Structures are given as structure tokens and as C-alpha cells.
Amino acid sequence: MEAIRKKNFINDKRRVSYLHSVYTRIYSGKSVLIEGDYGAGKSRFLQLIEPQKLQLVWVESLFNIHEILASILSQLKFDVEPMYHKTHSYLEMICKQKRTVIIVDESDDLDSRTWPYFKRIIDAGIPMIFSGLPKVRTLLMNQHPDILSRMKILVLYPIVVEDFIAQYKKFAQDAIEQI
Fold it and tell me: Helix (H, G, I), strand (E, B), or coil: what is residue 179?
């Protein structure tokens, strides 16, 4: 199989399959957890996700929950300010946005108190895509198994350069620099 290049990113069969799986999940209103060690390409993989019928919203994982919710609404063109006492109404507003996909990169940095809010969003049928280290799955398994049960888990492994070169003969020379 020839390597597929999209936006200067090299995909193997697994990543192509995962991308199809992510699209299947988000178009059916379901969520995904993309897990992998440092350097596995999680953040870059997320950038490949471009649904045509849904609006993507990126979440900064270091914010407090009221800032996260306000950020989501701001990206959806609502004029809101991050205020703690508005958290509940912001959550309700987000749960009504049905043509949206929320992406949370580096979800291992999330405050554990944000997960119940994300559960409400997931239960409203809004797909969420999380990426993070394996400790995210461990945290969800131990503290929020109900949330974990609502997600499909995809494990990304880093591409080993030597194995990649041996398997794929046809690729652009500048692609080696990326690997």
C-alpha cells in the first residue's frame, strides 16, 4: 500500500482506518478517545479531522470549566464572557448545538471536575473527541466509568521511521524530514 499524504502528514493503514472510524462516530453523535504516548501523533491526527456537515470547536484543556464552556460558545459565535455563575446556562446552550463536534487535545491536563460537564454534553448527542496519554483512560476507568463507556477508544502508536521506510517505497523525499 502506498502511503497517503494529507497536509504533509504521513498516514499508515491504522491511521486511515482510525480517521474513518472517527467520522463514523461523530456523524452518529458519538464520542472518541484517542490515546497514545508522547510523540504518537495525536495532535496532528486531530488536525486531519474536517467534517463537512459539522462545525469543529477546539477546547483548551488548561482552562477552568466556565472558561471552557464560554470558549466553546464563543467559537460558535455566541457573545459570552467566562463567568462562573453562568456555567449552568452555558452548559444548556452548548447542549442545544447539534451541528457541532468538540475536540479536546491534551485531555490529560483537564481538571477532573470538568468530566461531569462533558458527560452532559456527550449525553446531549454532541460528539466529543478527546486525545491524551494513556492515563486519561485510567482516570476515566477509575473515576468516571460511565463516561468511558460512552466512548470508542483508539490507540495511536508512533510510526517507527525504519519500519516505515522498509514498508513503503513510494514517498516524497521531504516526508522523511517530518518523520
Answer: coil
Enter the C-alpha cell of residue 31: 464520542
Which residues constitute the domain of residue 105? 30-61+98-157
Residue 12 to residues 54, 114, 129, 132, 137: CA-CA distances in angstroms? 26, 33, 20, 20, 24
Compute CA 91 distance to the chain's CA centroid, rounded to the nearest angstrom. 19
Decide if 84 is inside a domain.
no
For the chain, percent of residues with pLDDT exceeding 90: 75
Instruction: Kindly state the cell numbers that stand for 74.
Output: 464563543
Give this prediction's pTM: 0.83
Cα 160 from Cα 34, distance rounded (Å):
19
**Tens of pLDDT, residues 8-40:** 455 678 888 999 999 999 999 999 999 999 989
